[in-house]
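Would you be willing to look carefully at the protein I have copied below?

:::
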Amino acid sequence: MMRAPSALAVLTFAAPLGAAAGQWDLQGAVSGRAFAADGPQAWIDGGLGRLLEGGTPSGERDSGLRGELQLGLDWKPSETWLVHAHGVLHAEGSASRGATGGLVEAFVQFRPELTPQTALRLRAGLLFPSTSFENTESLWQSPYTLTLSALNTWIGEEVRLTGLEAMVVRKTDRGDRLELAGAAFGVDEPAGALPAWRGWSFGDRLTTAGERLPLPPLRSFEPGQAFADQQDKTQPIDDLEHRIGWHARARWVRPGALRLQGAYTQNGGDRSLHDGQYSWDTRFGQAGLEATLGPSVTLVAEGARRHGNGSVGSRRSARRRALQGGLRPAFLEPGLLAGGPRRHG
């Protein structure tokens, strides 16, 4: 597929808001692009394409505009408490089958200092896993590229931790920092459907709570086929079976020099069909590295790999075989990136 954006604009802003009770901060990001593309129709329009821009349903050249407004609001009633909400509005073509907007992230945070060297951070709500070395700016934005890596494109589309996360931060005498975190979460059993049915993608679209996204018109979904009972949409943030998943993360930081991280996530899905959606048994490990090579060059690398089954199945062995290995994210996204050390949450 050929894609030729003819115009692109991105604007971010942050503004403190005066208030009698606590500190209020408003953040925002506005982006827009014009495109001309041929090839398969975009997946968000219900086509077989893997990108957000594509051709017409017949594969002919298409053009259009796409924009996005993201807003975040932080309220800090004290030094230890934070309430955060993040929403998005999508300006997409009339063929888009996604939601116009909604809630991306919302949580309450309590961060007391236990000792001068040790702090505790508790978060409860709907939140991204704090694993990305790419999306390090407010509102889960990337300071490096407009299109995200395949790994973080997928996390933005399907992965949220709806539950409780706890993290302990320990600082050493020489300034190094060790972070140990764990989370128990639910409402994410469909995660894994998009890379399995559609394939991996590159984009920047963040899914909202309750949003239903189109699946490609595969022959296996047609009546009489193996997956005729799968509906033509997936709702990534959905509670299909009231099961609990878990997430664990360890990170070591030498400020201004090096960051190393390892993480593991298991969503707790049981690989069964629930009201037209499969509950995916999604388990994956992640590794990340960020090295400051000079005053204006940073090397960032991230990778993920599926562990365990990572697929869906049913009592019919043919269906199980069809989706064995449906989720195997094994890739690495390295790059030399201009700019000094970034701010990390």
In short: The chain has one domain: 7-338. The radius of gyration is 21 Å. Residues 150-158 form the longest helix (9 residues).
